[in-house]
Structure formats: C-alpha cells, structure tokens
Amino acid sequence: MTRKTPLFRASISAAIFLALALSTSSCSKDIPSSEPLPTVTPANTDANAGSWKMIVLSGPTQIPVTAPAPVSDPGYQSELASIKAAQASLTDAQKTAITYWSSGGVLRWNQIMREIAARSDLPPSPNPDGSYPVPNPANPFANPQYPFSNPPYAARAYSYVSVAQFEALKAAWYYKYLYNRPSPFKADTSIKALLPTSDIPSYPSEDAVEAGVNVALLTLLFPTSVDEINAKAAEQQQVALISGRASASDIAAGVALGKAVAAVFAARAASDGMKAAGGNAALWQSLADNATARGEIPWISQDGPPRPPMLPVFGKVKVWMMTPNDIVNERPGPPPSTSSPQMQTETAEVKSIVNSLTRDQQATVYKWADGVSTVTPPGHWDAIAEPYISAASFSEVRASRVFALLNMALHDAAVGCWDAKYFYFNPRPSQLDPSIKTQTGLPNFPSYVSGHSDFSAAGSDVLSYLFPDGATYFQAQMQEAAMSRLYAGIHYRSDIEVGMDHGKRIGDYTVRFAKTDGAN
C-alpha cells in the first residue's frame, strides 16, 4: 500500500469538514433553476474507459493517483462512520440536492456552464466618445465585466471544459479499475445508496473529478461567477458523500485529479492564441484595405457608433482535431463578387424573403436567434444533445465523451468560420441594400460564411454519428438553423450553403477521431 502524504490526509479532512458543514445549511436556495432531467442509472460501466485514446494528456497515468487505504483501514472505517452519521440527519435541502445530481454530473455541469455563458453574453456599451471598452480578465468585475461570451468565446469555453472533463474521467476510470475500491454502500451495507447504483469502483470519485475540473476551468473562463461555481462543486461533493457513493478519501483523490488535469488545460489555453484574437486598429484597417484591393466592397460595422469587428484573429486560435494548415486547406472558395450579378440576385432574394416572411419562418428566426444573453449557437447544440445523452443512460465517462466530441467540432468550426469571415471580409446584405429590414440582431462581423450554418453542420455531423437514430432530426435542425439566417435578412444563400458544407467537413475531423478512440 502506498503511504498517504500529509497533503492527502489534509484533503480528506477537508472533505469530511465540507460535508458536515454543508449538512446544516440550505444548499438549494443558491442553486439557479435548471432544466429538469430524469435520474440516470448507467446502462454500462465502461470498465475499459481508462484505455480510450487521450486527446491532450499523454496517457491515463500522466497525473499519478496514489493507492487508497484498504477498506479495513481504521481511517477508512472512520470515513464510513461519518457517512452513516450524515445519513441519519439529512435535511430537505440535501435530499433535493441528491435528486438534482442524480441526473448525472456531466449533464448538470453542462447546464450550469450554459447558464453562466448566457449571462456573460453581453457586448460592451460604448463610451461617451464613441469608443468601446474591452473586458479585462485582470479586472473581471470592472465595467464591462469579463468575459463577453460571444459565440467564438463560448465555443472555446465549452470545448475546454468538456475535453478536460473527458480526459480527467478517462484517467479516473483507469485508476478505479486499477484499485477497485468498492463504494461505501457496498463496503458497509448499513450505508444507504441514495444515488443510482452501479459496479463502478469509487476511488477516485467521478463526482469529485468533475467538480475539480469545473471549478478550476469555469472560474478561469467566467471569473465573475466564482461563488456560484464553488457552491455547485461543494454541493456535488457533498452529495457524493452523503449518498453513500463515495468516501472522503475517494472525493479528495477525485478533486486532486480533476484540478491537476484542469491545470494542463489552463496552460494550453494561456498560449492558444486567444489573447491576440481581438487584433488592433491597424489590422482591422488592413482587412478592409485587402478587400478593396481585390475590387470588393469591404464589410463595415453597422452598429452605432461603429464597433470594432468581433475577434478578427480568432481564425488563428488553436484547434483540437485539425492543424493550422487544415484550417487553411478547408477554407471555402471566395463568395460571389460584390459587383457580380449573382450577388445582386442573392441580395434581392434576401429582401424578397424578409418582406414576405411567413409566421413559421418568423418563428424559426426567433428559435435560432442565439444572440445577446443566450447560450449562443454552440450552447444551442449542447442543449440539443442533452436529452439524447440522458435517454441513453450513459456512464459519466461516456456522457462526457459526447460533449467533448461535440464541442471540439463546434470550436474547430468556429475557428474555421472566423478564418473565412476575415479572409474575405464580405459585407452583410443590409450593407449592400440598406432597405433590407433585418429580423434579428445584426452580428458585428463579416457575412461569409454563415456561423450558424457552420456550427450546425459540425454539430449535426458529430451527433448523427453518436446517435444515428436521431440523424434525421439533427440534420433537420441544421437546415432550420441555417435557413433562419436567410429569413432574418442577415445572410445570403451562398453564405448558408457554403457554410453547411464547410461545417460538415470540419465535423468530419472529429468523427474520424471518434471512430478510432477505443470507445466503440
């Protein structure tokens, strides 16, 4: 047996203290309302998940996890006694929290992340002189608060958290089946099992791994929500303990593993190119000058006062399943020239559709607006995936695989889409014809290719592979999302058709990985 370090023993003590401290407080009053989800009992333990292919980590043992004490150890027996004591005096708030987390931590954390991202999706208001302040990560609570979770920012955030969680859970599964420590309710049959049961070993705790990852990365990406994030993580750990699923030492090991994996991803994020994605005034002007030099009308901001373009260098941000050369090679060909008859025809089509919009088309515009204070298009596709994951009764590690694959594809689609947008710098329909009355918020970035089309084709591609029975529905949602932008008067038909083809090709990179990652 490996000796426990003082730090590890301190972590166990902290976990017990946390559970007891929370046992007397009302946990539910600080929890924002979330979409209802059914209780999930894993249909499969996925015992081999520790051998599934890694994406960023070198392997499941990159982060060491020491062996646990045997179940006969007095210290472990003391942990079991603490669980029994806690179960003897459960509060209504704790019972509510157990029900909440019984739907699965992966699904709950994705809901939480979408809620936080939507609250952060607020573009800065202009200064009195017409300039715009920039959110500052070094001072996140100042005006404007950091971040402005626009679609590219949100796509990147969803992907970092989802992939890190997946990697950490694969590592956790490796150690679970290496050490095979039973859950407390199995080690001591007088302990009740208050969450759905399975034969998945308890050390390290998967709930704690998720809490560790999400605390570390969500507070980095959404620092103004730190209190809510910490409260959720504490509650998840408490539920794992009082439900009889995990002991204090299972939880301490899980939190340590989750945070260590998150640190690897935080280091990646620090140098992935996001810091330079906003560009500068000289760059913005050069993009317009390049379009003019090609004989085209360059895109201009139609906000009042004109706003700097959204993240013009996001097309250089590091991708998950592609290389920088792949992004260039997959870049679509040019849009119709702004002086061409085709562009005149497409602009006239936008105006004609907007002027004769049906009620169904108007509803489609609203459904897919995904504008200010929303989960953005990538979050919309996470919401589409949610019921499929829940209905499949996946283990936590397999549920995390869905969100990791989906959000990698959505992020890579965002990078590829933004690369095309700023390479061509093509104007919106209402710039070429100001009489076009847009039906939704006008995005402050170039038109070609359509982001909704790109995101949706990538998302549909991955979900259709993972849930083939839903493929027809996913593809219908993709078509609807894409066409909503034509109905809204903010995209030409070519933006949409080329965007869907582009997104599908980018999504295929993730699908090819999924076919060989060992999970099938």
Automatic annotation (TrEMBL):
It holds the Pfam family PAP2. Residues 405-503 form the Phosphatidic acid phosphatase type 2/haloperoxidase domain. SUPFAM superfamilies: Acid phosphatase/Vanadium-dependent haloperoxidase. Keywords: Signal. Residues 1-28 form the signal peptide. GO terms for molecular function: peroxidase activity. This is Phosphatase PAP2 family protein. It comes from Tunturiibacter gelidiferens.
